[in-house]
Design a protein that fits this description.
77% helix; Regulator of G-protein Signalling 4, domain 2; 203 residues; mainly alpha; elongated
Length: 203
């Protein structure tokens, strides 16, 4: 009397492996071992990490003076790409990044040469930042808003000058001093100062 047993996939696989020549099995085991060594070799990751740290360290030393210059004036901060990024990050914590975004949009707008693009860009900037109830409305007075609205009828590269100047003054007098006192900037200046001292001690 025969006993019926359901077919087992694992059993079929084992039988299939057993039927393979011994050399194939040995090669498969060797390949698995090599892959395991490559994946878990600590010195490979260490080398990559060390390399990136060295590159970062070099960039940090170069930017140390730049970080300290940001406190000299608001102009120095706006001239620095890293400074603008750091200031923008700070403004996000105060939910007022639209002021800087508007200022940057105006700077980009001034570089536009095509009259057609100038008009379309002017309308986009006005609708996003300047008009009443704009999605990212900047804090400017009603008179400046109206002057800017009239300027759109014959858009030139100067049509946002007054609104941009008001927004800049607001950031310089209000947000910029708080940025300099913020924990994030204080940490950056400490690191920059310590890197400067360390650099001098090694020369």
């Amino acid at each position: 009397m025969s006993c019926w047993v359901p077919s087992c996939p694992a059993l079929s696989m084992c039988r299939g492996l057993a039927a393979l020549p011994i050399t194939c099995l040995e090669r498969a085991k060797d390949l698995k071992t090599r892959l395991g060594i490559l994946l878990h070799k600590p010195e490979l990751g260490h080398r990559i990490g060390t390399s990136s740290k060295l590159q970062l360290g070099s960039r940090q030393r170069d930017s140390s003076r730049e970080v300290l210059e940001w406190r000299e004036s608001f102009d120095q901060l706006l001239k620095s790409k890293n400074g603008v990024t750091a200031f923008h990050t700070f403004l996000k914590t105060e939910f007022s990044e639209e002021n800087l975004d508007f200022w940057l949009a105006c700077e980009d707008f001034k570089k536009t040469r095509s009259k057609t693009k100038l008009a379309s860009k002017a309308n986009r900037i006005f609708e996003e930042f300047v008009q009443s109830e704009a999605p990212r409305e900047v804090n400017i007075d009603h008179e400046t808003r109206e002057i800017t609205r009239k300027n759109l009828s014959g858009a030139t590269s100067a049509c946002f000058n007054e609104a941009q100047a008001k927004t800049r003054t607001l950031m310089e007098k209000d947000s910029y001093p708080r940025f300099l006192k913020s924990a994030s900037y204080q940490d950056m200046t400490k690191q920059a100062t310590s890197r400067g001292i360390s650099k001098r001690s090694h020369t």
